[in-house]
Write a structure and sequence with these properties.
Layout (H helix, E strand, L loop, with lengths): L3 E8 L2 E8 L1 E4 L5 E5 L5 E3 L5 H4 L1 H5 L2 H4 L4 H7 L7 H13 L17 H10 L11 H13 L13 H14 L7 E4 L5 E6 H12 L6 H16 L14
Antiparallel strand pairs: 1-2, 3-4, 5-7, 6-7
Helix pairs in contact: 4-7, 4-10, 5-7
Length: about 240
């Protein structure tokens, strides 16, 4: 199935551009309610998978052991702007688990918050992984590795227990076999997971309204969603919509 024409952009009286894509609207029971284009198109979730990637952080007991509050959990699910409220909390998490900014393997890019970027330039300070928009997620992964007494220098690799737990959680929530999940490398260096669009939509629907999960996982999922709702400024740039 070809991509559907979703948006027509006009300039004056002339059609300037057409934007195509695929849409799948799925409820928490797994029913495909609405579609456009190919609802089964294979896609990479990229940063939108962060709330699911945070599941092992809580299930292993790491979040409670290191006294994570809602803001800490929300930041682990975030693509942040590198405002001080974000970077200071990453530093706080790293301090609690006994690690440093150099242990973050997310790489660097310019801070998305312009004022922070300008301040770094004025002060002649280097841009470190702390300012990467994924440093919150990575600090959560490091927290899990530390709590489970696992190596931290390779936590970002697919065969590391941290990433294997995440893979299991994604497969379980989406009800999609692990062996069918396509694996790539995300911009921040960790595995990125590909699956049919309808399964990805189902994954989000079950996070928003847990259905058919174990009692333990249901509690964890609800805690993650509530944390993002309670600390939205820390979960910035993650759009999380409930699909009923």
């Amino acid at each position: 199935m070809e991509a559907a024409q979703l948006v027509h952009v006009h300039r004056g009286k002339m059609l300037e551009s057409v934007h195509k894509g695929h849409i799948a609207v799925v409820d928490s029971e797994g029913n495909l309610l609405y579609q456009a284009g190919n609802p089964y198109q294979m896609v990479f979730a990229r940063s939108s998978m962060k709330p699911v990637q945070a599941i092992p952080l809580i299930e292993t007991g790491a979040a409670d052991f290191y006294q994570f509050d809602d803001a800490d959990i929300a930041l682990s699910c975030a693509s942040h702007n590198a405002e001080k409220q974000h970077t200071n909390r990453v530093l706080s998490i790293l301090s609690r688990i006994g690690l440093e900014v150099k242990d973050l393997k997310c790489g660097t890019h310019n801070p998305r918050w312009e004022e922070v970027y300008e301040e770094l330039i004025r002060d002649g300070k280097p841009i470190t992984p702390l300012y990467n928009n994924c440093s919150g997620k990575h600090s959560g992964m490091l927290t899990t590795a530390q709590h489970m007494n696992e190596t931290v220098e390779d936590y970002y690799k697919l065969d590391h227990p941290v990433q294997q737990r995440i893979l299991e959680a994604i497969s379980s929530i989406a009800e999609y076999p692990i062996e069918k999940i396509e694996i790539g490398i995300d911009g921040c260096g960790v595995p990125v997971h590909g699956m049919p669009l309808d399964k990805l939509a189902y994954c989000y629907a079950r996070m928003a309204k847990p259905t058919g999960l174990s009692n333990e996982r249901t509690t964890v999922v609800k805690r993650i969603v509530q944390a993002m709702m309670n600390a939205p400024a820390l979960a910035v740039q993650i759009v999380f919509a409930q699909i009923l």
